[in-house]
Amino acid sequence: MRDGWPFEVGLPAYRNGPGWDTVEPAEYRVWVRAPQHVRPLDGVSYDDVPVEYLEPPSVVERELGPRRPSGWMLTKTGGRGTGRGTIHAVDCAEAPARVPVLTLEHALDVLSREVVDGEAGLG
């Protein structure tokens, strides 16, 4: 393992389930850097760990950081009309599939109506 290498690690976690009183297992994926955040275990061989080489970031990415995709998605719950909803960023792992992408202004408008009519949240 060379110094400064990033590793993507999956951490076991729990999240809210479909019911108001349920939880379900989940995995939270995070990038960590060696040796600042992780170190090898003594006596463990890492020869069989899959390795994927990443392209080096462009000058723009190095200076400004990675650009996230723009847009928001609404998960409606509670049926038609008023009810509960959650706004997700388009790159959120829990964002719904096959739903129109909203602009920031539209997402804020939807959220403001949801808060007035019922409950809303951010995902």
| Beta strands, count | 5
Distance between the termini: 35 Å
What is the number of helical segments per DSSP (H or I, 4+ residues)? Answer: 2
Oligomerization state = single chain
Beta-strand content: 25-35%
Return the average pLDDT rounded to an integer. Answer: 77
Helix content: 10-25%
Secondary-structure class: alpha+beta
Instruction: Please state the overall shape, judged from the principal axes of the Cα atoms.
Output: flat
pLDDT < 50 stretches? none
Largest sheet, described in full? 3 strands, mixed
**Could you state the order of secondary-structure elements as H and E?**
EEHEEHE
Radius of gyration: 20 Å
Biggest sheet strand order reads 3-4-5
Notes on the structure:
With 123 residues, this protein is of the alpha+beta class. The chain is 16% helix and 31% strand. The protein is built from two helices and five strands; from the N terminus they run ββαββαβ. It has helices spanning 59-64, 104-117, and strands at residues 6-16, 23-33, 72-77, 84-89, 119-122. Strands 3-4-5 form a three-stranded mixed sheet, covered by helices on one side. The protein has a two-stranded antiparallel sheet with strand order 1-2. β1 (6-16) and β2 (23-33) form a beta hairpin. The longest helix has 14 residues, at 104-117.
